[in-house]
Amino acid sequence: MIDFKLEIVKLLKVDLPQEEIYSLLSKTADESFGDYTFPCFKLAKSLRKSPVAIAQDLANEFPCDGIVSKVEAKNGYLNFYLDKVSAQADILRNIESAGSTYGESNVGQGKTICIDYSSVNIAKPFHIGHLYTTAIGSSLYKLYKALGYNVVGINHLGDWGTQFGKLIVAYKLWGDDDKIAKGGTHALQEIYVKFHQEAENNPQLEDQARQWFAKIEKGDQEAMRLFELFKGITLEEVKKIYTRLNVQFDSWAGESFYNDKMQPVVDLLKDKNLLKEDNGAQIVDLSDYNMSPCLILKSDGSTLYATRDLAAAVYRKQTYDFDKCLYVVAYQQSLHFKQFFKVLELAGFDWHKDMVHVSYGLVSLEEGAMSTRKGNTVWLDDVLNKSCAKALQIINEKNSSLENKEAVAEAVGSGAVVFSALQNAKIKDVVFSYDKMLNFDGETCPYLQYTHARCNSVLAKAPTLNVPVDYSALDNAESWTLVKLLNSFEETIATSATKYEPCLLSKYLIDTAQAFNKFYFEHRILTDNANKTVALLQVVKSTQKVLKKGLALLGIATPEKM
Ligand code: ARG
């Protein structure tokens, strides 16, 4: 990024520390007041002059030849106008020389961040509720990598709990291997639902389930064989979805991984006098912090979700020595995270302050668009399939001779689903609409992909030109707005990551695509002046690069042609 603010600070001769000048200097909201503005009110006291007079003096002294073409004193402010042409030339040369690393930085060098995301439950189909955590977590994973962090992506699989005892009973009674081989988790879910229906009239089933779960806990061979079977089926299925969504993990250590790692944590809590008995159960009382107690052991001695999260946190700190550990989980679990972070604090772990619950809202489908395969639950593979089928239909209507139509439809359809989860501030509840998300003209993923393909098609038509660049071709409002946006790519990546808001990048990409399309419709790019054409093509090339990389950071593919 070219930091024009810094360039101005170097040239502005006022009696204040450079950092202070830097923080006072801000971008103007309205371009008719220039690009940056400096308020002179702070200087009035020491200079014993009015801010209006100070601004005027500074304006008279300022050297307007390089990057700043004009300064103007207005109401106690000093307004700077950048030289549009030379600023754009600097930005475009910078983008060119950064190559494929444009937008990346090394601010995170030497720091480690763990991100717990997706964290699906074994033996359950991938449900649309897990789309948000998967899309947001995966994007944060890529964003932090672009900032130079060492990132550990963790899928904290939900692979422990009494439900596996129930599933074994259901499998023994009604399991059909052929059906399970074909239906996968959907077939497992079916017999699990049946278990609950039958158990209402036959409570004995619950006892059997408890016995089977006890067997899993003891590592009984038959119990473990079935448990691993269910786990294998689920993983095979979710990995297919992760491939479609460009999602990666470095660790698949799920809840069961911590079976032998909880006792030391329980012992520690006991040593610190934090455990209290409550009706036979062991809890940490959090009433001093206005929270309900954190359950550590049930009355039968078995562990809970929180116990496993405590053990996992300690394990992650020991294994990765993280600087931050993020949990991308729905806001319904806010209390759980507050409680378990508090218990870490009370247990004396000073790194409790590095734990962050990145929470998000609910995703639901528009009325009528519901997939009704399973009542009210919406499976992600159904959503992806439907979105990709609709994308193919649209492509057939718009451009039926397109090569690799199916592959393009897959990129457009699944990209639209991911983008709709990353488009809004994450705490907002989202209502999903296929028509809205696949609209090629709205603020949508296909619009971004289409704009990217438009850049490609201009570049493909361009002749090879080995002539000096005439940047005066960029002396217009449209390219100025666009190129300034291209310059703030790195900054956008950084704030999207540190605020845990990939939607900032989504919004930035929409702005950039809209600015590009304005530029494209206002200006002929392949002109008969080769020197000017080269400059205009550099704008197109840089836009293409930013859109491609920006979408990749959201986990979205960019087809070459559309
Ligand atoms: N499997 C859990 C669920 O689906 C999410 C786990 C989140 N991660 C964690 N460490 N608690 O609700």
List keywords for this structure.
562 residues; alpha/beta; Gyrase A, domain 2; binds arginine
Description:
With 562 residues, this protein is α/β, with parallel strands linked by helices. Among the domains are: 4-82, Arginyl tRNA synthetase N-terminal domain (Gyrase A, domain 2, 2-Layer Sandwich), CATH 3.30.1360; 161-248, no CATH class. The protein is 53% helix and 11% strand. The protein contains 22 helices and 13 strands. It has helices at 4-11, 18-24, 44-47, 51-61, 84-98, 129-146, 163-174, 177-183, 185-201, 204-218, 221-244, 263-271, 305-320, 334-346, 380-398, 405-422, 434-437, 445-461, 477-487, 489-498, 502-522, 530-553; strands spanning 26-27, 36-39, 68-74, 77-82, 112-116, 150-154, 275-278, 281-284, 294-297, 324-330, 355-360, 363-365, 430-432. Strands 1-2-4-3 form a four-stranded antiparallel beta sheet. Helix 6 (129-146) links the parallel strand 5 and strand 6 (150-154). Helix 10 (204-218) packs across helix 11 (221-244) and helix 18 runs antiparallel to helix 22. Residues 368-375 have low confidence and may be disordered. Bound molecules: arginine (ARG).
